[in-house]
Each structure stands twice: as C-alpha cells, then as structure tokens.
Amino acid sequence: MRAEMAEQPAVLERLLARADDVRVALDGPRPAGVAIVARGSSDHAAIYGRYLLELVTGRPVALAAPSLHTRYGARTDMTGWLVIAVSQSGETPEVVDVAGRLRAGGGRVVAVTNGAGSPLAEAADVVLALEAGEERAVPATKTYTAQLGAFALLATALGSPPWPDLGGVPAAVAAALEDPAPADALAERWTGADGLLVAARGFLYAAALEAALKVRETALVPAQGFSTADLLHGPIAAVEPGAPALLLRADGPTARDVDEAAGALRDRGADVRSLPLPDGVPEALLPFPAAIRAQQLALGLALRRGLDPDAPAGLQKVTPTR
Amino acid sequence: MRAEMAEQPAVLERLLARADDVRVALDGPRPAGVAIVARGSSDHAAIYGRYLLELVTGRPVALAAPSLHTRYGARTDMTGWLVIAVSQSGETPEVVDVAGRLRAGGGRVVAVTNGAGSPLAEAADVVLALEAGEERAVPATKTYTAQLGAFALLATALGSPPWPDLGGVPAAVAAALEDPAPADALAERWTGADGLLVAARGFLYAAALEAALKVRETALVPAQGFSTADLLHGPIAAVEPGAPALLLRADGPTARDVDEAAGALRDRGADVRSLPLPDGVPEALLPFPAAIRAQQLALGLALRRGLDPDAPAGLQKVTPTR
Question: Model ipTM?
Fold first, then answer.
C-alpha cells in the first residue's frame, strides 16, 4: 500500500497530460445530462465527478442506482446522455451490466478504468484508461486518485472547470506524501478508537466518505463519513464525549459550514481534529491531497493496530457484485 | 413518538385517497428527468422516490447536491425537468433555496411538505401537502411514511407503478403497528449494543438507511445503513464477531443479494437478524411496513436505554441548514 501510494504523483503526471486526447475523444454536442455508474471507492470518485460535471456542463448529473437496472429491469431513456462507468478493474459485473444497459438506452458510455482490455472497456464507446499500473494492495490508492484525475480531465473537456489548470496537482499530492506527520499524529492519538466520524462539505464531501471507507477497510475501525449538513440533521445526536471526529476543511464558500459543524461537535465533547490541506490549491482540487491524508491516516492506524494494510481481513481485490 | 406512530394508518388512508388530485395537478408532458431535493430522513424518502420515479417515467432521476447550488453557484438547466422538493416543515432554508434555483433554471417544482403555508410551499408550482397533522416528537415518523406515500402517489400519476393499487398500504402499516413483538425482541437483545449495521437492497435500501438514522437519533446507538452491494465492497471488513446486523429482505429479485450478504456477515460472526415484513405486499410497497419496524426498534432501544424518544439529546425539530 505504501509503495503504491508513492506512485501517485507520477501516475497523475502521466494521466493529466492527456487532456487534449480526452477533449478530442469527447467531442460532440453538450450532453443532455450525465449519469455515473460506480461502486465502493469508485463511488466516491463518482460523487466528486458529480459535483464537477454538473458545474461545468450546466446539466443535471445523476448517480445510477444499479439494482434498478439489474434487478427491476428499468428501461431508462438515455438519449443524448453521457454515461460514465467507473471500475478500477473494469471487471465488476454489475458496473459492466449497467453500463451496457444504459448504452442500449441511448447513452454514450465512457469507461474510466485501469483495466484497458477489461469487459467494461469492451462495452464502452470511449475508454479513459487510468494507466496506473497494477494495484496489488486491497485498499485502492493510486487508482482512486487516478479516478479523481479522470473526472478532472472530463470536466476540462466538457466545460470551464473551477481551476486555472491541473498542472499543480501532482506536486500537491507529492507534498502531502512527503509530510506524513499530521496524519501519523492522529493515528497515534486514535489508535484505540472504536469509531471515527469524518465530515466535510461540497467538493470535500466525497473525500470524507472515502476517508471513512479507507479507515474502515484498512484499519478495521468503524468509520462513517457525512456531509456536515446531513450530520446536523440527526446523526450528531449520537456523538458522545471524546468521540474522534475528523473534519476536512477548505477556505472558501463551505468553510463556514465546516466551522459550524466543528462547533456543534465540540459542544458535544467530541475530539475534533482536522488534517492540513495546502494553501493555494483551488477548492475543487483539494480532494487530491485530501485523499493522501486519508490514506496516511488509514495506513498509520492499520500499522499501529497490528494489521496488514495490504490485505485487510476478508476482502478481495475485485468484488464480484452481480 | 408512540402516539404519532399510531396515527400513521389514518394519515396514509387520507393521503393515498388523493391519487386523482395528484394526477390532475401533475398533468402534462412526460418530464425529461426528475430531480429530488431533500435532507435528513426526507432524503431517505427521496431515495425511495428515486427508484420509483425512474422506473415509472423511464427517465433519469437525480438527487440534487444542494451545496452545488447554494455554495458554488451552479446554474443547471432544468428545462423540462420535474423537481420534487421534500421537507417535513417546509422551512429548511437550504431546501427552499435549492428548489427556487432549480425553478429559476426551468424546472417545475412540486413541494412535498407537511407545512402547507410554508416557504417551500410558497416557492413551488404544485404543493403535495402531507396533511399529517403536527409532528412534535423529534424523530419523524408519520411525516416520513407520508413522504413515502407522496412518492407512491407521484409514481401513480407519472406512469405505471409496480403495484396493482395502494389500497392495502394503510392496513399493512396498521398490522405492523399491532405486532411490536419482533422489534421489541431485537431491542431487548441489542440494548447494550455499541453499534448497529442495517443492510438491504433495491426498494428496501432506503428503508435500511432510514432505520439506521432512526436508531442513531432516537436511541443514540451509532448505526449505519448500507446497500448489501456496497457492504461487500469494503465495509464488511470492519465487521467483528458478535456485531449486531439487521437485514431487511423482500422475496423477489433482491432476495439472493440479501441472502448473500447474510451469509458473508455470518461468516464473520455477526449477530445477523431480520424483522418480518408482510407476505402479499408488493416489494415496492414494503418500505412502508419496514419503516414501522424501524420505528419500533428505535423506540424500544431508546426506552431500554433510559432515553426520551421524543427529544433525543441535542436535536431540534427543524434543522436550519442553510
């Protein structure tokens, strides 16, 4: 896991250099809408993409409900829609199945996958190959940030993204990797935690969900991610004094929301901490360094808890959800 | 809470009798798509609606990302779209704000609310008033099942729903209310639990999320809801021997998925239980009796844990998320 984490700046450097290719491959009229199909950590990249793509296309973006298609036989008219199907391996049967059905319904399917010759790639109109190299550790690291990169490329191809350029992303990721101390300090503080709450809003919301998933599957700590807005709508009632709470915060339009949640959590006695994110990186690109912080926390917790971060109990690399 | 739970059959009886009115109010061309705006437990009714409405309209359904509009100024073209905004009180500023913006973007807004003269009702093209009477307990019960009822009415108005009629719903809800023993037995078994996992798939997925929220906010047990498909993609790794796990299961196309998850949870030593749902009720209507089971479990746990279910610590009835 640690070795694959270290590859991320190089993987992103290669991937983000392909902006022109992606633009050419996606050339065409503005889509009527965008649907995204994903599961597991890919689903968190999809949530990031959901925000980005609605912002740049000005059209509604929907996350597909797979069972609607595979279990209930929905026949959704996708004429004029772009369908983005995300699977690290490209072999999750359910994602392949849903992508095929939405294509049959008239959608134009883009496969975002590390599996260039995979069934998902075969079923798509356009393949955005991550070319991240083989990922052997069960927790997705370099393929996850590469999926974020793919959505950033798609946003660049489909409209005017909320950043001047993507050139600074590999360096921001490298800088976070070279500075493991903040996450290590939290891992030390929370080694014995029997739960972890992670919250954020807006572009960092997906990062909070992914941080919780990474901690759950790597360090086996029951962690739960929330939007700060949802947190205040009920779940905060169950927060007990001393409960570990991690907030991801960006300067900008969501800062006040996160500060408000921090205050409410502190009022309940929670152990509220945050992890530093770089200044000068546009908010919409902070999910990249935030993913590194989450990986560092998950790795640090796993090692301190005597677990093998490469193969947490009971997980397979490709989950054969049908 | 108990008194408001008992009102549900009568509330649903009145609401579901208004199918013709809803059909007339929604008359018009088939929408290009449907967007749903909601927070908290209303968001779980929205997920139920998401499945139903995509199935009956054959058009994509999206759950709105509120911060995209209120924090990042997205201007989404909603021409031809139906926008369904759900808020018990009709006063959650964020839901009102997003509904107004999507209406300005060309969407036709339907307010689903118990607040007939509320700001949300004022901002909408069509009001589907729940008429559930005042709800005083913090945990939403009768307004939640009424929201499910509203989506069932919308599905009936917009296409061919996956049930012959809605006539049996109030009786199914009444029968579940008259049979609290199964949920009470679980509440007794899990009184001291420090966590609860709830999982389901398809139409019952939203019911699993809502059951977890109800238990969290009413009984202050950290509970987490999952789709069985997502559960197998990572979170199951953190399940420890003896961990309480509640599965909601329908006969039909998702039964195998739930059985598979039950097997995987049992392999990890989890204490896997289910709550009975009635035979003879179409799968797409089981979320109604499932909501009753969840309320009974949350109430039973709260009372056994010495809590006041009407006013769990630190929650307000209207959450002023901006």
Answer: 0.94
